[in-house]
UniProtKB/TrEMBL annotation:
Sorted UniProt keywords: Glycoprotein, Membrane, Signal, Transmembrane, Transmembrane helix
Gene from which the chain derives: Plxdc1
Record's subcellular location: Membrane
Family of the protein in this entry: Belongs to the plexin family.
InterPro entries, sorted: Plexin_repeat (IPR002165), PLXDC (IPR031152)
Lineage: Eukaryota, Metazoa, Chordata, Craniata, Vertebrata
Protein name: PLDX1 protein
């Protein structure tokens, strides 16, 4: 059960987001405290959900698009109809 409607949650302290995303994190030394590290998170490929549709007892299903990972041979890789440019490496016997 959702105790508060998502649209009523204040974004003043922390932005309200719902969805799926890829990211990577880099740990950098903090200039103020030499023993500590500062986390920097770089987000990319975000899929956001319409927060007005999030209700109690609701569910979301994500269906991934085809990727190079699905190809096990050069022929399958180069003949695929993906929307990006991947290629097959004969030396490694995998996609690039």
């Amino acid at each position: 059960q959702i105790p508060v409607p998502v649209l009523r949650i204040s974004a003043s302290q922390h932005p309200v987001k719902a969805g799926l995303s890829d990211a990577f994190m880099v740990l950098n030394p903090s200039p103020d405290v030499p023993e500590s590290r500062r986390r920097t998170i770089y987000e990319y490929h975000r899929v956001e959900l319409d927060t007005s549709r999030i209700t109690s007892l609701s569910a979301v299903e994500f269906t991934p698009l085809p990727t190079c990972l699905q190809h096990q041979s050069c022929e399958m890789c180069v003949s695929s109809e993906l929307t990006f440019n991947c290629s097959w490496c004969h030396v490694l016997q995998r996609y690039l």
